[in-house]
Amino acid sequence: MKDPECVALLRSSAVRLGLSWQGFRNVHGQVCKRIRRRIAALGLPDLSAYQALLDSGPAEWLELERLCAVTISRFYRDALMWQRLRDELLPALAQAAIDAGEDSLRCWSIGCASGEEPYTLSIVWALQLARQYPALRLRILATDLGEDVLARARDARYAAATLAELPEPLRARAFQRDGALFQLRTELRAPVELRRSDLRRELPAETFRLLLCRNNVFTYFHEAEQRRTLERLSTRLAAGGALVLGRGESLPAGAALDAVILASEPPPRHRAGWRCLPRTPA
Question: Looking at 67, 96, 112, which one is the last position of a domain?
Fold first, then answer.
């Protein structure tokens, strides 16, 4: 299967899957590699045969949706975001939880891939903030659609390259060497609950003070799907909570949310500073 053929498939399938082709332009190679493996596993001769399988019914569309989940991640991705989270947002959210009489700070990492994001949050809290809030424990729900990446997250062993952006003092305290890999310490895995979940079809029952939704919904979903998902996410965000977006991401035009919106790097028109925006009054 040639790459242009796979690109054509992704373009034509995106709308039905609620995805935006624009988000895949720089990462489509990862998805195409998975589709090639899927075609081989099914014993199909080529992409045309796979397209015929898609046309025959809905079953394979669920598999194609899973194949389209981009899983590029690493620890401490976007250092500026983590610094801002540590210095400003997490302390504010922790104090709000304490003031509300809560004994835990509840966070949700959406599209957690192999666990790099929720585990980074656990590391930052435990090693840099927890002493300031001895009566407050961190609870992180980490969800993803792919059972394969969740299995890697449960294993919690990583190559050195995945840890390259994590500051060395944190890396030295959080991991122990295991051959060529690095094992995250048990106590730093404990606050994280890993759960397979499809964001567009189900939501957790609880509410959260922090939603990490980076390089996921607001990159790969079609605008209409972004709006639907944002509305659903707002029902799981506690009053005064925060939604964290990824670098260069923004909410759909005109969308509003009763929360702080913290992006790891503002879009070009906001390059002067971070975006911390309260909801626009109705």
Answer: 67
